[in-house]
Amino acid sequence: MFLTKSAEWRRGTGWVSHPSYPRYVYGAARVGHASRAAPFGLFGKVPLRSVVATSTDGGRTFGPPVDVMGGVPQTEIFGSFIPEVTVGRDGVVYAITREKAPPADPNKPFTPTSPAGAPGAGGRKFVSVSTDHGKTWKTTMVDDSAVHCGGYEWPPAGKADPNNGNLYVVFGQSGNQSGSPVNIFFKASTDGGKTWGKLIQLNDDKANVDHYYPGINVAPNGRIDVAWIDFRSSLAFDPTATPKSERFWDLYYTYSTDGGRTWAPNMRISDRSMNKNEGYTVNDNFGLMGPAGVASTNDTAYFSWSDSRRGTVETPVEDYYFTTARFGGTKSTSTSLTFAAGAATGLLAAGVVLVAELFVVRARRRRIPVG
C-alpha cells in the first residue's frame, strides 16, 4: 500500500504500535529530494520534511501523512530527516529526528563558532509529541549541538518506557570540525520530552575512530539496551587509524538499569571484525546505513546487524546475523560476560549476572543481491 508518494521510508522500526493500543499503527518517512540521484543542483537544497501517517484499524488503511514539524517556521528549522517513532504511556506518540540544516555557503563556511541551524551545520535533535494519535504535533528540542555537517550522523533512535513515561534518545554525533570522530550519545527525559538531562557519551574507548548507528530498546523491567557499529577494532590492525582511514568494525553493547544515569562497560557482541569495504552498510561507495536491531525482555537482549563477513572488496555482500545476551541471577557483586565463540571478557556491575551466548549465526534472513 502507499502511505505517501516521493518518500523515503525508514527501516522496519519506523513502523510502530503499542500493545495497549493495537488498532493504532504509525509509519514514518521523510519527503523531498533525499536521493543522491536527485535532479542536478537540487540535492541538499530542498528542505526534507519528517512525516508520520496513522492507521486506526490495525494497519489495514492509513490516514494522510502529517508533517510533524508543520507548526515550526522554516526560518527556525530548515528541514529534518526520517523520524524514529515510539509510543509511550497513555498512548503518547513521539517522533524523534535530526535537523537538516540549510546547504553549506561556500562564502561563509561552517566553523566551530557557527550557531546551530547555520548553513552547513548539523546536530540539533528534536522530538515531536502527539497526544491525539498523530493528528497534531508539538516540537521541542532534545539537543542543540552545532556540529560540522558530515559523516554518518544518522537520525537519532529513541524509545519510550511504557511503565514510567521516560523517553530515551541515542545518536551518533561528531565534533564541530571536519574529520572529528562520531561518538555515541544518550539523553533522557522524565517529563515526556519537555526537558532533557545531560548528554552522556556511551562508547567508553575515547579512540579517534567512528561509532555509528545506535539502536535502543527498553525491557519491561526498565533496563535500557543500546548497541552500535564501532570502529575501535581498526586500531588492532592500524594503531594510527582515524575516521578517514578506519576499516574494521564490530557491534558493541552497553546497558543501564537506573534510567540511564550509569552504564555498564562496553561489550563486544560480534565474534569477528568486519571490513567496511566488503559490505554495504558503512561502505564509502554505498553508505546504505542502518542502526543495530535491538529487542529486550527482562532476562534477554536480542541483537541483529548487517554483517559483511562473507563479502569481498570486489564482491561486497551482506547477511543478517543475530545473537542474544542473557541476564541471570538476582544478587551479585560481579558480572561475567562469556562468549560461545571468541574471547571471554570480564565485567564488573552490581545486581545482575549477564551471560552472552554469541552464536556464529548463519540463519540469514535476507541476502542482499550484488549489482
The protein's oligomeric status is single chain
Shape: globular
* N to C succession of SSEs: EEEEEEEEEEEEEEEEEEHEEEEEEEEE
Sheet with the most strands, sense and barrel status: 5 strands, antiparallel
Computed Rg? 20 Å
Portion of residues in beta strands equals 35-45%
CATH class of the largest domain: Mainly Beta
Main structural class: mainly beta
Unreliable spans are 1-13, 34-43, 330-371
Task: Provide mean pLDDT, rounded.
Answer: 78
Question: Total helix count?
Answer: 1
Q: Write the CATH fold name of the largest domain.
A: Neuraminidase
Total number of β-strand segments? 27
Q: What's the CATH architecture of the largest domain? A: 6 Propeller
How many structural domains? 2
User: Percent of residues in helical segments?
Assistant: under 10%
Amino-to-carboxy terminus distance = 27 Å
Would you write up a description of this structure?
It is built from one helix and 27 strands. The protein is mainly β and 371 residues long. The strands form seven sheets. Strands 1, 2, 3, 4 and 5 form a five-stranded antiparallel sheet that branches. Strands 6, 7, 8, 10 and 11 form a five-stranded antiparallel sheet that branches. Strands 17, 18, 19, 20 and 21 form a five-stranded antiparallel sheet that branches. The radius of gyration is 20 Å and the shape is globular. Mean pLDDT is 78; it is low at 1-13, 34-43 and 330-371.
